[in-house]
Amino acid sequence: MKIVTLSGQIEILSGLHIGGGDDVMKIGGIDSGVVKDINTNKPYIPGSSLKGKIRSLLEWDNRLVAYSGGQPFGSDLFDKIPEPSKKQAINLLKIFGDNSAKKDTGITRITFSDCFISDDSKDLKLSEAKYENVIDRQKGTASNPRQIERVPAGVKFDFSLKLKIFDEKEPFDDNENELKAMVEKGIKLLENDYLGGSGSRGYGRVKFLNLEWSDETL
Fold first, then answer.
1. Where does the CRISPR type III-associated protein domain start and stop, copy by copy (predicted)?
2. Where are the beta strands (DSSP E) in 13-127?
3. Which residues 6+ apart lie within 8 Å of 106 measured at CB?
């Protein structure tokens, strides 16, 4: 088995909101805060947010969503998809995991790390409060104002993921170049979509910087 690492940075291009659980009601304060590291009180990007979003985008890109009824695609649905789509579906399940009972593709290959503030952003402001409103369609006036916390544009996070590659002689028959290409395609799809909440309102545009693969054989 070989483990390859993809590392670099994520730069925020427009305010990012990945919600955190607020345990205190603050009158006149932020209505919806971002997730923060409990030890430093600084925002971070959970690896689970990256994994879920990238997987979802790849399932749409490979036309698998129609077969899963809105749930994550699994190997129990292989019989429903056309033959040309099966190779990509198998690689997707190898990378991101198979939630079905069959688990024909083995263990999940990818591991996303939580992304913490990069050293070159440590002196920047790390949060901003943005007012949101609902527009009354008849009166044309704003109502229900609320404050949403966001990580502002320009902040960078350190990014890293690891990808397991099994020898092609083993039963799972991994093709390293194909798995890497799918991960890279998912990252490109994310750059053209958004991360976190309220993407249709301009939130969550991101760019990946200085991405580089490295590997070690175990």
1. 10-207
2. 110-112
3. 94, 166, 171, 172
Dist CA 197 CA 110 (whole Å)? 24
Q: What is the dihedral of CA 198, 159, 44, 127, to 10 degrees?
A: -70
Structural domain range at position 198: 2-23+32-217
Q: What is the mean pLDDT of each run of 10 residues along the chain (218 residues)?
A: 94 90 48 84 95 95 84 83 84 88 78 96 88 60 70 96 82 86 97 92 94 83
Q: How far apart are CA 32 and CA 164, in angstroms?
A: 37
Q: How many domains does the chain have?
A: 1
Which long-range CB contacts under 8 A does 130-139 form with residues at least 24 apart?
130/15, 132/201
Cα-Cα-Cα-Cα dihedral sign, residues 91, 92, 95, 98: negative
